[in-house]
Amino acid sequence: MGASSPEPRGLAHGVVGSARVIAFGASNVAPAGAVVGGLVIVVSYAGFASPLVVLVAFAASLCCASSIAEFARRLPSAGSLYTYNSRGLGRIGGFLTGWMMIFAYALYVPAGIALTSAYTSQLLADTLQVTISGWALFVVILGAVVLVAYLGIGTSSSVDLVLVAGEVAVIAALAITILVKIGPAHYSVSVLSPASSPNGQLTDITTAMIYGITAFAGFEAAAALGEEARNTRRSIPASTIGIVIVTGIFYLLIVIAEMFGVGRHGIASFTGQRNPLGYLTSQYWSPWALWVIELVVVLTGLGFVISSLNVAIRVLFAMGRERALPASLARLSSRHTPVVSIGCVAALALLLGLPLTYAYGGARTFGYLAGAGGLSVVLVYLAVNIATIRAFRTEFRDEFRLGRHLLVPAAAAALFMFPLWGILHPRAHRLMDLLPFVALGWLGLGAIVAGVLRARRPTSFEALGKVFTSPKR
């Protein structure tokens, strides 16, 4: 914790090494899940210019990861960006950051379970000829990930390590196969031109950026292990940046292979497939290998949900510990896991995800919930970059460096204006384009709650962002 307030009992310290921290964060990004979910939506908006969208999202995420790493070296906390922004933007800014993170992850957990249940149902039907509804599998998967979260971060991160390594290897192998079979003669730099989008307009790019950023979203998850990692002041910053680099290279490889694999005129057919990645698998590997891709998606979905659930419960735990939310959220089990927070996130996932999965199926539920969380992610990332500039001009002024603490976060903030513009000026007024505005209502409610907290519990409000691990760690 801070230098002046030792904590008698908290999360288990020093139980996760660097490899599992990286796996935990990478699983929260869920690269294989993003390939079949978010990146397909990117392609539907940006078309042949999709690699450009991924490249800009990569640059923005890398700059943002640098800002988070700067905070992680100084304020290791389970609250991660909530703690950082409490120090960099003040108590209200920090509270609203945690508030918006809870909103985003409360949507991402059921979204991930919904998509995983859909692919699990398909996998069982294709391989074992067993028919189980997606909504029934939703309940089973939720129960399994809640159990893993309860058992502790050591168990969760070990599962994530196995899952993420396998998923990246299989899908990267497919992408390399596509590029080798096509050959350099069919490569084109036009994939990096905005003019290659379906309408040749900037709105194609800015709208696609919403989902491009969402595909990277979650790299900050490593910071939530700030109280449980070994050598946390070194491992968390390095892991946060490393996750973005590995994920960005992977996404560029995949989306370039997809564009060259289907060609400029085959994109509409590609995005219209029930399983776009399976379509490419049939074309460039063999139809018999479809089950391998479906299994990979199921496994990456599980990894994503486990990681997202763990981040959500740690933000709730940190805010409960500081009395920004009910103190019961900080209650720990005998395994040092936030048991009440686990129950709250599980209940929210069930209430949000199960009815939608039953009514619309897993894939559409994923699109709706992930889309609704998009604005929250963009706002939180914007805020942490602004907080970096302010914190290192005030509290950490002696450590200020022009590049790391001004130019890089300013570049990130500028790049995040692209998806923000796409959200606030949608190309069309369809449900999918308007869902992010739900986050504005949640933000407004958070501002009211922050005002009430400041008025009624000023001591608790002033303590926000003060709890982090000892300087010795």
Structure description:
With 473 residues, this protein is mainly α. It contains 21 helices and no strands. It has helices at 18-29, 31-36, 38-46, 50-74, 81-88, 91-128, 134-151, 153-182, 202-216, 232-262, 267-271, 276-284, 290-321, 339-360, 362-372, 374-391, 402-415, 417-424, 431-434, 438-456, 458-462. It is globular. The protein starts with 17 loop residues before the first helix and ends in an 11-residue tail after the last helix. The model is unreliable at 1-8 and 469-473 (pLDDT under 50).
User: Mind summarizing the main beta sheet?
Assistant: none
The Cα radius of gyration reads 21 Å
Give the termini separation. 10 Å
What's the average pLDDT?
Answer: 83
Q: Which stretches are low in confidence, meaning pLDDT under 50 for 5 or more residues running?
A: 1-8, 469-473
Number of strands: 0
Order of helices and strands: HHHHHHHHHHHHHHHHHHHHH
DSSP summary: helix tally: 21
What is the general shape? globular
